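Re: zinc ion structure - here you go.
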Amino acid sequence: MKIFQCGNCKYSVFFENYTCDNCGHLTGYRAEDRMMLSFEPNIKALISDREHLEYKYCKNKVYDACNWIIAKDSPEDYCSACQLNRTIPNLSDPESDNLEYWRNLEVAKHRLIYQLQKFNLRIPSKLKHEDGLCFDFVAKQDNEKIMTGHANGVVTILIKEANSVLREQARIDLRESYRTLVGHLRHEVGHYYWNRLVKNDAKVLAQFRSIFGNESQDYSEALQTYYKTGTPKDWQKSYISKYATSHPWEDWAETWAHYLHIMDMVETAYFFKLNVKPNFKTKDLKTKVSFDPYTKVNFDVIVRKCVPLSLAVNSINRAMGIPDVYPFVISTAIIEKLKFVHHLLLPKRR
Ligand SMILES: [Zn+2]
Ligand SMILES: [Zn+2]
Ligand SMILES: [Zn+2]
């Protein structure tokens, strides 16, 4: 994620900020060019500090669920990220924690949309286009079969995933090393883009099958087998997670999610100009992120940054007694899978 600058006082501003921490000016994110704008707080109109143009906030700002802005004369009430919401949690009960859960979900979703837009991917809303994408953030009622997942452009996320206690419990129950909202969203949206970018292109599909295997094998049977027999012994050689072994579609979605994780980590490091240089002579841990990964054609250069970066950040986390930020091993076979995603997305960025 990029870091931004206040248009009034030039202090750093972060993606989720509603105001500048230094001067108190209001801040709003403009998706069209990924800029954070700032506004004089004491006047009614939202006039940007740098360009003196008038904007309005996305309607979800009233819930502190969105800080994105749209042009004042736009016919839209919602920003490009919030237009994708089909179902949001029921906010009418003041006793429930739904508002807090929804805000957590929106933080993750806005980060996802930032990234998809940076890849220049088409993100039509399913509310307007049959082949579009939308999000259902729903509570599971007793005896309902609804689950977190993706089907035909609809990404469903159970709002209990936004409760950190329940999510951690699920992570332990499922013996996962990592479970986050942004991880869920990146994974599920991966299934949508498989349909959009792989499924109907014979050449791409053939490439996909040679790397991930044949996805035409029965999906529910494969999942049943996975839950019954578990993972092959040396799964880490070829798969980024245990779940990725269950079916080529899940392998794709897990790989896609990790690709987005890696791009975001390296982009963040780039904007902070992170430089890993241990205070003794070594080559293995040295790195400097001097480029925006979204502009790089060669994926090897990007992935090479990950090991020193994650080791450094993991060590800081360990200093604070919190889990590793990136508890995964990226093998050569996994790099090949990540490269497939990278090359699929490259032409869209030009
Ligand atoms: Zn400021
Ligand atoms: Zn919005
Ligand atoms: Zn999946």
